[in-house]
Amino acid sequence: MNPEHAHRPAGVAPRLAAMTYDWLLLASIFFILTLGLILLRGGAAIAPGSWWYTALLISVSFIFYGWFWTHGGQTLGLRAWRLRVVRTDGGRLSWRDATRRFAAATTLLVPPGLGLAWMLIDPRKACWHDLLSNTRIERTADSGRVARDGS
């Protein structure tokens, strides 16, 4: 474990802000993808509940998060809030780690928010998906502003 980052867990507010940034970016990607699909289909709408469309959106989400996590550990939202995802030993995530983290992140959905709220009582400020995937979100070295906020 890298001692510089051993005691620099990310707080709730910066994590939620980073998630919001990433969801906005991902929604934009979904919009462009869907527009392209509709144009390719000659203007025909995609039927609600289409399994292939749902699978496509999940795949795009996984590629989005997985690529950022395995290439520096920062999505654009994490970078904006000076956070990084790493393995619990401080190492970079592999695609296997990213797959586990992405799959474990579904714990945020059932029951809604409980997996994220867990960090309020966890001494390491870990969410369920952090614990299940042996990863953590930490502040980066240049996050002095965040550290002074107490977030």
Walkthrough of the structure:
With 151 residues, this protein is mainly alpha-helical. 53% of the residues lie in helices and 7% in strands. It is built from 7 helices and 2 strands; from the N terminus they run αααβαααβα. It has helices at 12-40, 51-70, 76-80, 95-104, 114-117, 128-133, 144-149; strands at residues 83-87, 135-139. A two-stranded antiparallel sheet has the order 1-2. α2 crosses α4 (95-104). It is elongated, with a radius of gyration of 17 Å. 21% of the residues are buried. Mean pLDDT is 88; it is low at 1-5 and 144-151.
Structure in a nutshell:
With 151 residues, this protein is mainly alpha-helical.
How far apart the termini lie comes to 22 Å
Helix tally equals: 7
The tally of beta strands, per DSSP, is 2
Major sheet attributes: 2 strands, antiparallel
In which range does the helix fraction lie? 40-55%
Mean pLDDT level: 88
Give the topology, please.
Blueprint: H1 12-40, H2 51-70, H3 76-80, E1 83-87, H4 95-104, H5 114-117, H6 128-133, E2 135-139, H7 144-149
Antiparallel strand pairs: 1-2
